[in-house]
Amino acid sequence: APQEIRGFRHYPGWLTLEEQKSLIEELRGLVAKAPLFSPMTPYGKPMSVRMTSAGRFGWVSDRRGYRYSETHPDGHPWPPIPQSVLRIWEAVSGTTRAPECCLINFYGENAKMGMHQDRDEADFDHPVVSVSLGDDGLFRIGNATRGGKTESLWLRSGDVMVMGGEARLLYHGIDRIEPGTCPLMPNGGRINLTLRVVT
Ligand code: MD3
Ligand code: FE
What we know:
Elements: E1 3-5, E2 8-11, H1 17-33, E3 50-54, E4 58-62, E5 65-69, H2 83-92, E6 101-107, E7 113-116, E8 128-134, E9 136-141, E10 151-155, E11 160-163, E12 172-178, E13 190-196
Antiparallel strand pairs: 1-2, 2-11, 3-6, 4-5, 6-13, 7-12, 8-11, 8-13, 9-10, 9-12
Bound molecules: N-(carboxycarbonyl)-S-(naphthalen-2-ylmethyl)-L-cysteine (MD3) and fe (iii) ion.
N-(carboxycarbonyl)-S-(naphthalen-2-ylmethyl)-L-cysteine is lined by residues 103, 105, 113, 118, 128, 130, 137, 139, 161, 163, 167-168, 170, 172, 174, 192, 194.
């Protein structure tokens, strides 16, 4: 049974070690086709997290701002979302609609993600599903507006989280990565996949 925290459903260890291993391999192939890039913040400073996407839409950020795009910054369409990832969505999302974006975030040992809301999608009734792989990441959950009391939890390799209902619009971020916590990533780092319906 999932652990319920502020409307987030957390499934610790949803993926077996074998599943994690094969998913990491699959993502290596995907990143070879759609290379990771460092999105620019509107302030002109690159984010410390590197990203790429799979699916019809990917998330990009440049001088024009944050948005979903049907092409990688290199001009190519995004690769398809791996079947193994679609199966996770089918198992936990509670929706029959297919995800249109799989955002792939890569955190090196000094990367973090500041507190933000995810509101570039057309319909917040659809949940967001997240899959963590690699090193542990300290996830922080806030409120529907900036500031106030927050709660933190560690996301570990193989964990799945579902953000639906009231949780969907809460501020959240990743404070830090704990290097060297996952033997499946010999060069270290954390990968987070987020699956979303965009349109
Ligand atoms: C809560 N990613 O990609 S995953 C993001 O670990 C993002 O890379 C973090 O925040 C990461 O936007 C956190 C958990 C998560 C993902 C999406 C959410 C929490 C969310 C959307 C709405 C509310
Ligand atoms: Fe987010």
